[in-house]
Amino acid sequence: MEDNAILLIAVGTFFLAGMVKGVTGLGLPTVSLTIITVAIDLPTAMTLLVVPSLVTNLWQGVVGGHFKILMARLWPFLLCATVLVSVGAIGFAQFDISFLSLLLGILISGYALSGLTGFSFHLNHSQQKWLGPLLGGINGIFTGLTGSFVVPGVMYLKAVGLTQEQLIQAMGILFSLSTVALALSLKKNELFSMQLGLISVYSVVPAILGMIVGKKIRSQLSETIFNQTFYFSLMGMGLYIALAAIR
Question: Which of 7, 25, 70, 169 has its C-alpha lying 20 to 30 A from 77's C-alpha?
């Protein structure tokens, strides 16, 4: 596909993904990864999301007043989620793209299903000690394989008893660290080309504009209706990716 076509797809995608993030506080990596995988392919999607994801999540992760507390509490989970991205990237270089696309579709559909059903669980302190590194490592491997940051990482963060403000900031930290690790892995696998890197940089602008629009929408739209629409859309696209991969 020509660079101009990729740029147009990226601009539209990151505006929409930024709008979702403006309304909900999350979703930019997942939405952009899903749409671009459907429109182009998984390796391109993983590359294009790097800069917009880092820029939009870095501020969310650093600012909020809970950074030191969260790092002291979550560092084993975050360390494993970051370091093991490189392990997943080894698999990315070995597995067929259709298998990885199938895995991505399953992860996205599973995440959407958990949102629609309200699935959640709670982990006590002793459980967090061993499940934190384990689930962080699984999250890192899935990130390296598919570019998806959310399963099971977001589920773990929701299960450890964080306040709403702490949860939003913790997701920002997770997504930022995962994005940096993913970028390094893509570079090592020679997938982060100069052309796609520039398009990723340009995509920051529509992502930020989308966030501004999303924040305005948030005050006028029922959060319940928006979340249901968001998760149903992710479910549909996730299933489409999975079915397309096995054809």
Answer: 25
